[in-house]
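Pipeline run #58 for the internal structure catalog. This entry was flagged by the ingest filter as a single-chain record with no existing model, so it goes straight to prediction. Upstream metadata was stripped on purpose; only the residue string is passed forward. Reviewer on rotation: M.T. Logging verbosity set to normal.
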Amino acid sequence: MFDTESNPDQNFYQKLLGCNFPGEMIHKFRRELKYSAAQSVDAFLEHRTDFLEIGKAAIAYRLIPHEQIPVLFKEDADNWYRYLFGKLNSSFELFQENQIAVLTFNYDRSLEQFLLTALMNKYQKSCEDCAAALQSIPIVHLHGKLWDLPGMGKDEFAYNADHSDQRVLNGAKGIRIIHEDQPTEEFELAGRIIDSAERICFLGFGYDKTNLSRLIRSTKNREQQIFGSAIGLTSQEAQNVEYLLRELGFQAIHGIRSYWHLTSTLQFLREACPFDWD
């Protein structure tokens, strides 16, 4: 995620300097992140609280430039947002009757923006009307996010790639790192959503035991059907995920498989996730 070699990312360095982080701290953060062997910045920050603020700013700096609407609508091999929107097909008046919710550990707002933009253009409705309709689909960011979209929350900022110093610092405020999570409103809402669900589908999820335990700690219903992508996992690793889910109380587990022939989330949704879309 960050260039820590001898030819450093000067833009990254200058940005963090502009956000009032000392140069020595920036170099120390980059160096120790590189040699920590952590699989993500989040995992690194969980144990290195001394880098918490600069780490959040770094995450925001890397995410904000990707807030480009045209990128969301590229017709690439894994645009499952387009596929999902197609399965939510209805009249605009009935859109709010779609029975789906999204729980995510990601900080970006790309799914919300894709759905909002698609609604506006498909039905020729205002941003305000589409934002109101989209409220019927809970999209819960369990570890925080880069603001809310206009008309959809408290800290509202438009979706754009402006990564000025102040915008980076503002975006960092909405990010939470795992160790910071005590029971929150988001996790309590997630528990209620899981309890009321008939089917649960894990997409692009790492099945971290800590994340799973926190996600379901406030739930009571363990009767749902469980499906999950495990693209790239070995058969043994996929089997271990099933053992973990059963250990956490779920019984009706289906489809946690390695799926070597699948190469994307979109393929998994189309071929291996038997939802009654139509």
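catalog note: The chain has 13 helices and five strands.
catalog note: Confidence is low (pLDDT under 50) at residues 4-8.
status: ready for reviewer M.T.
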